Amino acid sequence: MSGIQSVLQETRVFNPSAEVQQAAAISGMASYKALCAQADADYSGFWGNLAREKLLWHKPFTEVLDESNAPFYRWFADGQLNASYNCLDANLINGNGDKTAIVFEADDGSVTNVSFRQLHERVCKLANGLKAQGIKKGDRVLIYIPMSVEGVVAMQACARIGATHSVVFGGFSAKSVQERVIDAGAVAIITADEQVRGGKTLPIKAIVDEAISMGGCEALKTVIVYRRTGNPINMQAGRDIWLHEVEGPQSAQCEPEWVDAEHPLFILYTSGSTGKPKGVQHSTGGYLLWAKTTMQWTFDAKPNDLFWCTADIGWITGHTYVCYGPTAAGITQLVFEGVPTYPNAGRFWQMIEKHKVTLFYTAPTAIRSLIKASETDPNVHPNKSDLSSLRILGSVGEPINPEAWMWYHKHVGGERCPIVDTFWQTETGGHMITPLPGATPLVPGSCTLPLPGIMAAIVDETGNDLPNGQGGVLVVKRPWPSMIRTIWGDPERFKKSYYPAELGGKLYLAGDGAIRDKDTGYFTIMGRIDDVLNVSGHRMGTMEIESALVAKSDLVAEAAVVGRPDDLTGEAIVAFVVLKRPRPTGDEARALAKELRDWVAKEIGPIAKPKDIRFGDNLPKTRSGKIMRRLLRAIAKGEAITQDVSTLENPAILEQLAENN
Ligand code: 6R9
Known about the structure:
Mg(2+) binds at residues 550, 556. The protein is of the alpha/beta class. The protein is built from 20 helices and 30 strands. The protein has a 7-stranded mixed β-sheet with strand order 5-4-17-16-18-19-20, with helices on both faces. Strands 7-6-8-11-12 form a 5-stranded parallel β-sheet, with helices on both faces. A 4-stranded antiparallel β-sheet has the order 21-22-24-25. The two termini are 28 Å apart. The site of ligand 6R9 has 20 residues, from helix 12, strand 19, strand 20, strand 24 and strand 25.
C-alpha cells in the first residue's frame, strides 16, 4: 500500500445534520453545485454579481476582470470604494450601530464591549489624526501592536484614508521590524508601550526603538504609541506620540478616501522559499469581497452569531477573519489578548462558555497542545465547560490530522458541530478549499472541495492535469478577486513564485502538494511541495507519516517529519517526536524509536518507516505555531543552524533534537 493511499483510506464520513443543513445559507450539495455551475458558465458574471451584491461601491465598476497584463490581474478596476466604509458605515446604515462589533477579553479576563458605532467613531478619530500627522493616501504604515481593539482600529483607520497598512506580528524581532519598515518604505509605525500575555508584560515600543536604531528607516517620521500598561517607556520628542493624543482632538466624522478597487489595502510579509520574506500585496475591492463572502459561506455567519477567530491580527487569518470579514458581514466577534494556556489550558473552553461563542476558528497546533494538556490535567478538559453554544468549528493553518479532528469533533463540537477545515494562504486572501457547513459531507483530514468560483486543480510538474487519485501540485486555473496582486517592490519574484514558466505561466502555483480522492474528488493537502518526500520512487506526504505517529495516541503527542537526502533511497525519512511522557534518552530512546518505526511500518507500510527518530520536549515553532520544517531539515542533515531563529518560540530544544538515538 503506498503512503498516500493510507491517508485517503479514511472512511469516516460526517454528513451535516438536517438541522444544520436547513439553517445554512448554502444548504445541501445541490446548492453548492449550482453556485459552482454558475461560476463555470459565466465567470465574470458570477463575480460581478457577487461584488455588486456584497459591497457598497462609491463608483460602480464597468469591467469585472482585466487580464490584459496577466498574471497581474485587475478586478473591478474602474470601480471605487472604501474598505472601512464597507466594514463600519455599512453597519450604521443597516441599523447595526448599537450592535456589539467587538467583545474584547484582556489577558486578565476583563471584558470590554465596543459597538459598531463606537468602532466607527474610534476609526474616524484616528483616521483624522493620521491625516493631521501628514499621513496620506498611498503611504505605508507599519502596525506592530498586540491583540487589541486598537489594533483593529489602526488597520481600519489606515484603510479609511487610503494608507496601506503592513501589520507585523508582535512576536517578531527588532530586526524583522526594521527589514519590513525598510522594504515597505513605511512613514509611520503604530505600536503599544507593552503587551500583556500569559500574566507577563513584554516590551513592544522598546523593540520598535531598537528596530529604528538599526538604521535605514529614512522614510519613517512618526511612531504612534497605544498606552496599554502605562509603564514608563522612552518617548522620543518630535517622533513619538501617544495614540490618545493623536485621536483626542479629532472629529468623530471622517469622509472616507474613495480608492480604486485595485488600491493596495495592505502588504503582509510572509516567508517564501528564500530567506527574504515576501511582501504580499492585496487589493481593496477583491480582497474585501472575499473576506465578507467567505464569512457568510464558510462560517454560515448569521446576525446572532458570536464569532471567535483565535488568530493574531499579525497573520493573514487575523486580517481576513478578525479585522475585515466579521465587520464587513456585521457579525459580533470576540477578540482575545492572551494565550490559550493562561491561567490554565482550559482558557479557550472557559471563554466559549462565558461568551456563548457560536463559531470557533483555531489552528490544529492549538488543538493538539490542548489535547495533550487535557490528558495530564482533567480540569482543563473541554468537558469541564458548557460548549453547547457552539454551532460550527473551523481549522486553519496546516493539515489537521484525523486524530486531532476526531477529538475536536467529539470533545469540542459535541459530535454536533461541522468542522470546516479551511485551506488557504496569505496569498489567497481568504478561504479556497473548504467544506460548507450546511452542505459538504466531512471526511477527517480532508479540506474537501473548492469554494464556488475557485478553480483549484492538481497538475504534474509541467502543468498537465492529473486524474483523481494521483498526487501532484496544487494550482488554481483562473484568477480570483482576493488573490495576491504582486510582491511589494518585486513583480519579477511574484511571477516566478506564483506563475512559473514551468507550468506554462497561466496557473497559480500554491506551493502545496495535494491529491484528490478517486470517488469524491475531495482534496487532501500533503504539505508544502518541498515537504513531499520521494523514497525509493514512492511519493508520500510527510503529514501522512506524522498522522500515523500521532495515531499512536497513548505515546505520541506531536510529530514532524522531514526528508533527508539518501544515497540509496533518494530521500530518507526523519521523524521528530514529542512524547506524552518525559523525553527518553539512551536505551529507552532506542527502544521507543524501534517501537514507533514498527508502528509506522504497520500503519502505512515499511516504505514509510522513519530511518531516524529524534525526541524532544517540543518542536521548533514560530510564534504563530507553525513548525519550522526548514530548521528540522537542517538538523536532520546534521547541519549547523545558521538560519535566523529569532522567531522561534523555544530555541533550546534544537539541541535535544540534534541528538542521535
Ligand atoms: C491561512 C494560512 C499557508 C500554508 C499553505 C499550507 C498550510 C493552511 C491549511 C494548510 C492543510 C489546511 N495550510 N491551511 N494545509 N490544510 N486547512 O495559514 O496562511 O500562513 O500563508 O500558510 O499553510 O501549506 O500553503 P499561511
